[in-house]
Specification:
Rossmann fold; seven-stranded parallel β-sheet; 19 helices; globular; binds zinc ion
Length: about 525
């Protein structure tokens, strides 16, 4: 029963003497498992299927069944007929068990799965889940699973409570590992938890070795400013086109036909009402989600949405967070000055989701605009270099010999809070960040070793500006498949082609300065030969 008494002394084999600081992962949105519990504290049955971490009872099939008749009625009568009300309310009903109340706490008995123990003491399933959020399993072989921790929290819950839990976990990790200092890896929304940690627990600087931010929403995101504001694209043609282009297979054809039949205007009404439901149920009372509102947009939005008596407590808490957000730049510099080594991984030049208007104005990675993830990097919009004659601003860089302009001319990293330790990945989709093995290698390298002090330490391996690639399928499926092929049964020609394709994939993976097209070509040639020899459908 030792596992139930995590506070009893040091649990690591190294007793804190191995030289690898233990790491706490602070995951992003939807990367924690949250369940609704009944009065006996048991997970309620018939809730969201496995794989959907949130919302707690989102059952796509049940939603489709509930809407089948109203959809048909709307299509046949060519009128709304109450369809948009029913559809948006049905979505709302799916989300409402996940809602927080005006006190900022969940209305239901919700529980985020917590791991107050190292990955070494997690079950195999728990460990697999942790490493599915950020694949550090390889890296942790070096320092040991007993040096990896994961902060589970409700993405639609309470920011200040979660920051307090992170602070407590840092203390727990110190006690359990015997190490005096801990690394933290705030990912995406996890960045907003770090905002509160640094502001409300300034003493934590003595507990931290490194902070490695991964695509963090340090100044929220313009995406969520638009969502809170109800400021989204109302161009119906845009939705028809994007849904039609993504509809595939038999179900896809049905969707296409149905779309032709939906009366004009119903679409946008449906979107507007659904957005309102989502905002009112999931976002309005969640101080974690308020953390995703940029500092400069906060006051107007809070005045608009939180100035009534009912939201007094939420407003008190979001005002506190806002203070932390306003101090974030100063806090980061203070922590860095006191010896905490801080790194930042930023994706850019991947359009922000086009159903919000921010997509037209900001560079980003699908979810987070570059200014937020880098805390200040100036940039042109997607595929748009900085203006002709633009001069590197050196707002934060003090060495005139440094060049911090991206090779594509889009980003001036010298204006970001940490120009010397922020790494940028071009055309990188936020959601596929963990699929980019170079990003994972870089994060691992930063956590485990001290050779990379800044972007100039090993530019031939990890330059400040790099590119995107998604190699998860190649590494996890295609290459193992290729390795299991019985070469003796192949023709000499096929065997040579397979050999060459595998060699090219391996050479590409060993190269950490990314050539996106090369990685696509390598994967395609491996797929081609695997299909030819019947190993891939
Ligand atoms: Zn150790
Ligand atoms: Zn510099």
């Amino acid at each position: 029963m030792e596992a139930n008494k995590p506070n009893e002394g040091v649990l690591t084999a190294c007793r804190g003497k191995c030289g690898y600081s233990p790491t706490i992962i602070v995951p992003g949105i939807g990367q924690s498992k949250v369940s609704r519990l009944d009065e006996n504290g048991n997970r309620m049955k018939n809730e969201a299927p496995p794989g959907i971490n949130f919302p707690v009872c989102f059952r796509p099939r049940a939603l489709a069944m509930a809407l089948a008749w109203p959809v048909l009625k709307m299509i046949f009568t060519r009128k709304d007929n109450g369809f948009t009300d029913r559809a948006s309310k049905a979505v709302g009903a799916c989300l409402s068990p996940s809602a927080a109340g005006p006190d900022g706490k969940p209305v239901n008995h919700l529980q985020a799965e917590k791991y107050p123990k190292s990955a070494a003491r997690c079950t195999q399933d728990e460990r697999a889940f942790i490493y599915s959020c950020i694949p550090l399993a390889e890296a942790s072989k070096e320092a040991g699973d007993d040096h990896i921790y994961f902060l589970g929290y409700n993405s639609f819950g309470n920011n200040l409570e979660t920051a307090a839990e992170l602070y407590e976990m840092i203390q727990l990790v110190k006690r359990e590992t015997g190490h005096g200092k801990v690394n933290i890896v705030p990912i995406s929304l996890g960045g907003t938890i770090a905002v509160s940690l640094l502001n409300f627990y300034p003493q934590v600087k003595n507990d931290l070795d490194k902070i490695v931010f991964v695509v963090p929403g340090l100044n929220g995101t313009k995406f969520f400013a638009d969502i809170y504001n109800g400021n989204f694209n109302t161009d119906e043609v845009f939705y028809r086109k994007s849904i039609i282009s993504s509809a595939k297979g038999f179900k896809g054809r049905l969707v296409k036909i149905a779309l032709w039949l939906v009366p004009k205007g119903v679409f946008v009404d449906l979107l507007r009402k659904t957005f309102d439901e989502v905002r009112n149920i999931l976002l309005l009372n969640s101080t974690v989600m308020w953390g995703s509102v940029p500092c400069e947009d906060y006051e107007a939005l809070a005045d608009k949405l939180l100035s009534d008596e009912a939201h007094k407590e939420i407003r008190r808490q979001t005002d506190l967070f806002h203070e932390g957000q306003a101090n974030m730049r100063a806090n980061i510099l203070k922590f860095a000055e006191s010896g905490v080594r801080i790194f930042d991984i930023v994706d850019y030049n991947y359009p922000i989701h086009t159903f919000v208007n921010a997509s037209k104005k900001y560079n980003g990675d699908g979810w987070v605009n570059i200014e937020s993830a880098s805390l200040g990097a100036a940039s042109g919009c997607i595929d748009t270099p900085l203006p002709v004659g633009y001069i590197q601003q050196n707002t934060r860089c003090t060495n005139p010999a440094h060049s911090h302009i991206s090779p594509d001319g889009i980003v001036d990293a010298s204006t970001g809070i940490l120009p010397e330790t922020t790494f940028y990945f071009r055309n990188q989709n936020h959601e596929l960040t963990a699929e980019n093995d170079v990003i994972i290698k870089l994060v691992s390298e930063l956590l485990l070793h001290d050779e990379i002090k800044d972007v100039f330490s090993r530019p031939e391996q990890f330059p400040q500006f790099n590119n995107s690639r998604a190699t998860g399928n190649l590494r996890n499926t295609l290459l193992p498949k290729a390795a299991s092929v019985e070469r003796g049964k192949l023709s000499a020609e096929d065997s040579a082609e397979l050999q060459a394709a595998v060699a090219e994939c391996e050479a590409m993976l060993a190269e950490t300065v990314v050539d996106t097209e090369r990685s696509v070509r390598a994967e395609e040639s491996l797929k081609k030969i695997l299909a030819k020899i019947g190993s891939l459908k």
